[in-house]
Amino acid sequence: xxxxxxxxxxxxxxxxxxxxxxxxxxxxxxxxxxxxxxxxxxxxxxxxxx
Amino acid sequence: xxxxxxxxxxxxxxxxxxxxxxxxxxxxxxxxxxxxxxxxxxxxxxxxxxxxxxxxxxxxxxxxxxxxxxxxxxxxxxxxxxxxxxxxxxxxxxxxxxxxxxxxxxxxxxxxxxxxxxxxxxxxxxxxxxxxxxxxxxxxxxxxxxxxxxxxxxxxxxxxxxxxxxxxxxxxxxxxxxxxxxxxxxxxxxxxxxxxxxxxxxxxxxxxxxxxxxxxx
Amino acid sequence: xxxxxxxxxxxxxxxxxxxxxxxxxxxxxxxxxxxxxxxxxxxxxxxxxxxxxxxxxxxxxxxxxxxxxxxxxxxxxxxxxxxxxxxxxxxxxxxxxxxxxxxxxxxxxxxxxxxxxxxxxxxxxxxxxxxxxxxxxxxxxxxxxxxxxxxxxxxxxxxxxxxxxxxxxxxxxxxxxxxxxxxxxxxxxxxxxxxxxxxxxxxxxxxxxxxxxxxxxxxxxxxxxxxxxxxxxxxxxxxxxxxxxxxxxxxxxxxxxxxxxxxxxxxxxxxxxxxxxxxxxxxxxxxxxxxxxxxxxxxxxxxxxxxxxxxxxxxxxxxxxxxxxxxxxxxxxxxxxxxxxxxxxxxxxxxxxxxxxxxxxxxxxxxxxxxxxxxxxxxxxxxxxxxxxxxxxxxxxxxxxxxxxxxxxxxxxxxxxxxxxxxxxxxxxxxxxxxxxxxxxxxxxxxxxxxxxxxxxxxxxxxxxxxxxxxxxxxx
Lengths: 50, 217, 476
Prior knowledge:
heterotrimer; A: mainly alpha; 3 helices; rod-shaped; B: alpha+beta; Cytochrome Bc1 Complex, Chain D, domain 2; two-stranded antiparallel sheet; 4 strands; 10% strand; elongated
């Protein structure tokens, strides 16, 4: 399941780098997904105001 | 109740922008710490113990460097081999080698190498890339550049060229005389040798493998 | 909304015009030294050992960075009174710092021109140049720049906090402090070339692909409100979306510079897929400009008028060119070679040069020239600034010249990639084999021709800007 590590020195980010997509999908997700929470908060605020 | 739209709400986008910017910056800083550890210069002890560093210590100038395909990495990597003479010595101490590299790195900046050449692929495109210049076949025994300078070793040939570049033109586009002294030239060659030992993830690809190929005019 | 601070009497706007004037002079210098370097590609003996390529190119790219920084500072001083409704706080300090900045630049240029290189010592780094592409300025000048930038950011913050802090001003405050702070990452010496280039990219990349882009977004927002009366709420919403997208893709997009300098392999993936998204906000900015223009014009037409909503024609064309040029030069030409599989062969070739030319011009030069036009409009009290023959020709020649240079350099890069890199394996001999190819040589001829075209366009631009005040065609 896990790809053998190829870089010179093992590291957390190197380990997440399991192929051409894994690391970047992970990073994009943790950046973008919390926007859902901001969305919910703002929605609640707008509903309260109207 | 009026229909609300979060998607056209300025505050939602303002907060999202702040979050994304802040968090991306935090990730970059984290990655920087990770990378900084991996690209810190190695030591003489690492070299003696055969520990592979992305950026080896300055005493790498005591060793022979080659650029070979690694099946594990899937590209070429610099390989540090047996001892090799550099200006007649192979026993530079960490201080001596460090001082030479320091002089060479200073020289590479003060002589403005980067505004004609590329170093690690960055710089100007008016002259050849210097990343693996130390390994260029033209400088090896029997290579055209070494023969042209009349010197018997690679390092002496390179140092001679650096001091009197316009005496040895290889093209109508020549390197100008930059007032490089013999000591500075030695430092610069040490800097180039050290740079060729940096693990650049296989850049440049196939370096020096395609000698004598027909050129693509 | 108009008061004495936003009209002709504004000191902040006066300082802005000073900044713009010096910026335009440096733009001229940039083009002159660019032409010298372009001639040297065609005739290598030109000024050999007098003004070598390395010196000409250093002046070319330093003039580029500095004129843009000047024009950016000028733009902020120009829009501050309009946005905040008050005179800029600390304007006297701002004017003093301007003269210090100009004096420092003149000294640095004279040293570049007449001393050129020094011995391999720390002293040369402090007093001649640092030899690091784009940020060659000697260390003493670095500290001067830090002082000037601090003064500028201070003025911006004090004004923003005292006056009305609009969304545009808020974005600029956050952006300009990052812009100034990042410069510190390029102010140290290390023997480790990998570490050197790692931090060097923090300055270069995080400027041009993050903070400068956000700056452009803010200026575009301001320009749309000024020129076509776009709705502030809509414009500022777009601005926040752009900030999120630009920083979201641009900050980690720095990874595309970390493929081959000795940094770990995981940067391949981060660099490839974050920077691949960098064009998205640039598309969005273009859509945004077109949308607002169509919306405002449509309102006017619906009201029974067929007059144009654009209050400053040349400025608006330059802003439009910016929206499109940013997408084309930074977005498309950048994406061309941002994936590591491609970049392995294109890194360090004329491909980069083609992208660099079109991106700096499309993303920054255009909008800053647009700001020049807004400033001549404001400082001459013109209500509607119209096109003149010179403005139309200067836009056509500059944009045409730049597109021509980009095409030529792209072809040259293509030859380099195929011959020098893929076929010959990047050696010294391989490099010159590529340079001698017919396609490469002809591309360099065309680049020079197109450079001259661009220079003619600049001459007309200068003429048009200088004669606007007296030209009777504009509505007052």
